[in-house]
Amino acid sequence: ASTSSEPLKIKSNELHADNEKKTAVFEGKVVARQGDMTLLADRVVISYGADGHELSRVEAFGNVRIHQGTRQAFGSHATYDNKARKIILDGSPKVLQGEDVITGKVITYYVDEQKSEVTGGPNERVEAVIHPGGKDAGKKP
Amino acid sequence: MDKANNIKRLLAFVAVVAALALIVTIFVRSRGGKAPALVPRLPVKVGVSLSGIHFTETREGVKKWDLSADRAEYNRETNKTSLFKVRLLITDKSAGDFKVTAERAEYDHATKNVRLTGHVEGDGSKGTHFATESLTYLAAPSRLETGDKVNFSDRGMTVEGVGMKFWTQTRRLQLLSAVAAEFGGRR
Hints:
Chain B: GO terms for molecular function: glycolipid transfer activity; lipopolysaccharide transmembrane transporter activity. Chain B: Keywords: Cell inner membrane, Cell membrane, Membrane, Transmembrane, Transmembrane helix. The complex is a heterodimer of chains A (about 140) and B (about 190). With about 140 residues, chain A is mainly beta. Chain A has strands at about 10, 15-20, 25-35, 35-50, 55-70, 70-80, 85-90, 95, 100-105, 105-110, 115-120, 125-130. The two termini of chain A are about 15 Å apart. Chain B is α+β, with helices and mostly antiparallel strands and about 190 residues long. Chain B contains one helix and nine strands; from the N terminus they run H-E-E-E-E-E-E-E-E-E. In chain B, a hairpin with a 4-residue loop joins strand 8 and strand 9 (about 170-185). The radius of gyration of chain B is 31 Å and the shape is elongated. The chains are: A mainly beta (about 140), B alpha+beta (about 190). Chains A and B meet through strand 1, strand 2 and strand 3 of A and strand 8 and strand 9 of B. Strand 2 of chain A pairs antiparallel with strand 9 (about 170-185) of chain B.
């Protein structure tokens, strides 16, 4: 289900906001929810437009975990492009769909599509573990 | 014999009249209307009691804030003024004005800090708004602080938390715990 028109709700231990520059830094057990997607991290930085609809930047740092239906994603850093509805994960990123796993240097996770793109690097080749005939056979992680 | 009876009747008559007079006196005294209400003697500590008070703080020729209230009582011992139905207007050329209202406040003449309590609400000229139960305005750093729960909104972001620091000149905000924020969903 498309979650683009739903508000982004964030909980954390602490908040530092600069209302002049329209930036907000959430720190400590941060939980961000939008529709059926939940993102957890140590710190999340938001840049928002005058009316809050245009989130020009949502960046998560430290122990990033994303849960959405049967999909999960992990990394140490993530950037969420609210317009394009995708999350770019790096820092040993990993996406799980049921028992299937993909890893690489950078993973682009599409929020509204059951799709992810993986790019490798010199030391982090793309690796995918797919269980044929698994419950989610045919579904791309 | 008749003479004795007459004396008895006379005495009885006098007793009745005296009783009646006493009753009437008590009645009149009790309905006699209250003495005009004297201006209540001020509690010993209160030196001055004023209504419609207005303080202004100016630094290097620039007005920093206006503090006004419907009523105020200055306490000589603590060198503080208690205020009732309070309005604090913090002025700043770049950040714009910031108005805080509250039921009560206490102004410390030494530190120039103001402690506000009771339905405290703040409104900035650039769309900032907050509501809490108590608040302290620290004059030196021009900062508003509370340890209470606070609801804060600024165009684009609504947030609540417990414990707040808000710098009125830079409009920087810090919420200290239990933060829950919401940003409008994409149109």
